[in-house]
């Protein structure tokens, strides 16, 4: 499925809109203003936007604001009421309903879970993080590089699934190369392990994930927890584990999908490449 120049142009124009929403999620974001930014007629803009991103403008704004709320709750410096007001909700009750749909948890339960994750890698207080040491064989994947803010990674994952169509896929992955804090040196790929022939597309890369040893943590719950869980593993588990990071990509292995499971029922294997600490 080769992408036409017109489709590439549409995506680039819609990407400008998404970047504007991410840059200032609390702005009014009137449809006419966003359409003008993308150089589309307001009459057609909403339909084009939904066809490219898989969601409405309002859904993108809501998701980005709630993602901001997860960060504020994780920091723990503000009350839930203040977080609700800071992310555009008129009442804690409305915020709690929206947040529950987004994460599968109440804001307070999410905040408490994040506290345990940051301090103990998601394990009960006083216990070590639940980590397994596993060996993974080399694997070839079909990958679509993510462009734009990290909060729009779901759009890239959706595009890869649309590209795959009805073709069989044995696994869906996220591949992170480098440090997410280093924008210039970081790359993220939405990836699939095909179970058969894969359609050609200039945007799709064939990547080889080398064999090696990984620290595996099974994360239960919404994808909004992934960053905090990864940080906890690097900061709390790794220094006392006898291992150090190896020079291979970090992996997210999605065991199920939000299309089939509630946020609280999602399961993701987080895989950090490791080697013995005394290895050269």
Low-confidence stretches: 123-128
CATH topology name of the largest domain? Multidrug-efflux Transporter 1 Regulator Bmrr, Chain A
- What is the helical fraction, as a range of percent? 40-55%
Number of helices: 9
What topology emerges from the helices and strands here?
Elements: H1 5-23, H2 31-37, H3 42-53, H4 57-75, H5 80-86, H6 92-103, H7 107-120, E1 132-136, E2 139-145, H8 153-164, E3 169-177, E4 187-194, E5 204-209, E6 212-220, H9 226-237, E7 243-245, E8 250-254, E9 267-276
Antiparallel strand pairs: 1-6, 2-4, 2-5, 3-4, 3-8, 6-9, 7-9, 8-9
Helix pairs in contact: 5-6, 7-9
Task: Characterize the structure shown.
It is a single chain. This protein has 280 residues and is α+β, with helices and mostly antiparallel strands. The protein has 2 domains: 5-103, Homeodomain-like (Arc Repressor Mutant, subunit A, Orthogonal Bundle), CATH 1.10.10; 132-276, Regulatory factor, effector binding domain (Multidrug-efflux Transporter 1 Regulator Bmrr, Chain A, Alpha-Beta Barrel). Helices cover 41% and strands 22% of the residues. It has 9 helices and 9 strands. Strands 1, 2, 3, 4, 5, 6, 7, 8 and 9 form a 9-stranded antiparallel sheet that branches. α7 packs parallel to α9 (226-237). The protein is globular and about 60 Å long. Mean pLDDT is 85; it is low at 123-128.
């Amino acid at each position: 499925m080769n992408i036409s120049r017109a489709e590439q142009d549409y995506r680039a124009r819609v990407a400008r809109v998404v970047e504007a929403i991410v840059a200032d999620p609390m702005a009014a974001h009137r449809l006419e203003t966003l359409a003008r930014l993308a150089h589309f007629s307001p009459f057609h803009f909403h339909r084009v936007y939904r066809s490219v991103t898989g969601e409405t403008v309002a859904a993108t704004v809501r998701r980005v604001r709630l993602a901001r709320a997860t960060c504020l709750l994780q920091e723990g410096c503000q009350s839930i009421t203040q977080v609700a007001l800071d992310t555009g909700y008129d009442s804690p009750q409305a915020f709690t309903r929206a947040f529950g749909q987004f994460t599968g948890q109440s804001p307070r339960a999410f905040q408490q879970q994040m506290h345990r994750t940051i301090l103990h890698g998601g394990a009960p207080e006083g216990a070590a993080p639940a980590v397994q040491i596993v060996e993974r064989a080399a694997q070839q994947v079909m990958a679509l590089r993510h462009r734009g803010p990290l909060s729009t990674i779901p759009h890239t994952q959706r595009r890869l699934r649309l590209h795959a169509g009805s073709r069989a896929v044995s696994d869906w992955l996220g591949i992170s190369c480098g440090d997410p804090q280093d924008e210039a040196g970081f790359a993220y790929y939405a990836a699939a392990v095909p179970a058969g022939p894969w359609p050609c597309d200039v945007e799709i890369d064939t990547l080889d994930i080398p064999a090696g040893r990984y620290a595996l943590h099974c994360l239960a719950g919404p994808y909004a927890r992934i960053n905090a869980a990864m940080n906890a593993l690097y900061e709390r588990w790794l220094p006392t584990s006898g291992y150090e990071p190896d020079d291979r990509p970090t992996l997210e292995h999605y065991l199920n999908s939000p299309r089939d499971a509630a946020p609280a029922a999602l399961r993701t294997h987080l895989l950090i490449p490791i080697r013995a600490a005394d290895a050269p």
